[in-house]
Write a structure and sequence with these properties.
With 183 residues, the chain is of the alpha+beta class. The chain has a single domain, classed as Glutaredoxin. Helix content is 24%, strand content 23%. It has five helices and nine strands. A hairpin with a 5-residue loop joins strand 8 and strand 9. The model has no long low-confidence stretch (mean pLDDT 95).
Length: 183
């Protein structure tokens, strides 16, 4: 694996379903071109999930939506990504009550190239594993975690790690925001 913490994150660019109330979207305003250069100077939480219209995926996507303001308060943008098309994202968001008002975009990686560049594309299935990357304002990966398809991630843990990273200091095991750092 050449994609390690501390290395520059791969560049990405693709069409995405924008954040907001999906029931108010039209073909003219639903989609945006999204690229990593749009986020220079900000923290980014980029998380991949296997597929739209599945069982574990919406639980994570909803949870990131519920915690979105906490990420925003830390100058961190959230981006979801899967190998589904932007049209599939729109259909899923409008049909699933818990996904209708997501405040962040859903990147459509229909070719799988973004997932391949982030080294989480599963050739056997043609979709991405549950990879999550925190990217600092300089564009370097500072945290990554990969889960198998059947296991959802903890938004609270991602926020804990983001808070710890932003201290710039050593943080002990189970450290929480507001607690003393080691140095």
């Amino acid at each position: 694996m050449s994609l390690l913490v501390g290395k520059k994150a791969p560049s990405f660019e693709s069409i995405a379903l924008r954040g907001g109330d999906a029931t108010e979207f039209s073909p003219d305003n639903a989609f945006i071109n999204l690229k990593n250069d749009d986020y220079i100077g900000k923290w980014v939480c980029l998380f991949f999930y296997p597929l739209d219209f599945t069982f574990v995926c919406p639980t994570e996507i909803e949870d990131f939506g519920k915690h979105y303001q906490e990420f925003a308060n830390l100058n961190c943008e959230v981006i979801a990504a899967s190998t589904d098309s932007h049209f599939s994202h729109l259909a899923w968001r409008t049909s699933h009550p818990g996904l209708r008002k997501l405040p962040y975009p859903m990147l459509a990686d229909f070719t799988g190239n973004v997932a391949k560049n982030f080294e989480i594309y599963k050739d056997e299935t043609g979709y991405a594993l549950r990879g999550l990357y925190l990217i600092n304002p300089e564009g370097a990966i500072v945290y990554s975690v990969i889960h198998p398809e059947a296991v959802g991630r903890s938004c609270n843990e991602v926020l804990r790690v983001l808070n710890a990273l932003q201290t710039g200091k050593l943080t002990p095991c189970n450290w929480e925001a507001g607690q003393d750092t080691i140095n």
